[in-house]
Amino acid sequence: MTQTAIITGTSSFVGAHLARAFADAGYAVTATHSRPRDAYDGIRAQRLDFAAQSAGLAQLDVTDGTAVRALTGRVRPTVWVHHAGHAADYASPDYDAAMGRTVNVQPLEAIFAAMAETGGGVIITGSSAEYPPSGDANHEDDSGEPETPYGLSKRAETERARTLAARTGVPTRIGRLYIPFGMLDHPAKLLAQVIAGLRAGTPVDLSPCTQRRDFIGVADVCDGWLAMAHDLGRGGFDIFNICSGEATELRALLLAVADALRADDRLLRFGARPMRPGEPPISFGDNTKARRMLSWTPRALDRALREDLIQPSMSGAPS
Q1: Counting CB atoms within 10 angstroms of each CB, which of 13, 102, 234, 270 has the fewest?
Q2: Please, are residues 47 and 83 in contact by the beta-carbon 8 Å criterion?
Q3: Is 291 exposed, middle or buried (CB count within 10 Å of its CB: 0-12, 13-18, 19+)?
Q4: Where are the beta strands (DSSP E) in 155-206?
Q5: What pTM was estimated for this model as a whole?
Q6: Which residues contact 40 (CB under 8 A, 6 or more apart)?
């Protein structure tokens, strides 16, 4: 029997890749976006075009419970991949927590009720921001309060999903995502700006870039989500860190990008800008559980950079 999937948030970087990956894996995919398709332009329109090469697109307001139930009844998905969410100003203390609750948490009621009728499962995109600050690797069972309003919103989403999974019996997985990179990420993001500067031979002003982060190629993210979809057959509720498991210094990552592009790394002007206030020195996850239970292993960082970021950018694909 054909596996079917609804994937929300397709105009986002990771959402577009998830739609393509599930379709390429043999799922009949309905990929959703919140506004009329002709209302999108720029990178978001490119993402929808990318997803539409393999998946069917559908407009859906995830905050509209009636629309959620109608789409679920029509598609009868075996898996609902819930990637849509409110992430504007996610790193800011001014993040709109009320909007976060409206978009991140409240739609789960209708999603779980609808999926209980189809007998399918749910995968939700969580975040590394759900963990409290720590100098050590984050583990799925770590306790403590997140420090940002966005992190609190995503933690509330996870806990509501846990409650609803127990109440409805819908198999559920949370994939806590760290820092993905690859084709179709926003051109204003740091890696895209660095690549553009290096290819143009223009200097790029940077902070000292001594912070250490957990970077992961988008193809590995998609493989992790597909592995969680397979794991839904085990039933129940579970959380997995989808991450490299390594704390890579940002400076080292950018130098590796310059080397892969055969560009002059002196164009990278480290220290030309100050560090962002409140920037934590280290953040990374432990992926042992995902490796063991999902039989999922991310590629080495240099290979992921080459395959997901450098080669697409050099071939002219949007990055």
Answers
A1: 234
A2: no
A3: middle
A4: 172-177, 179-181, 204-205
A5: 0.94
A6: 11, 33, 48
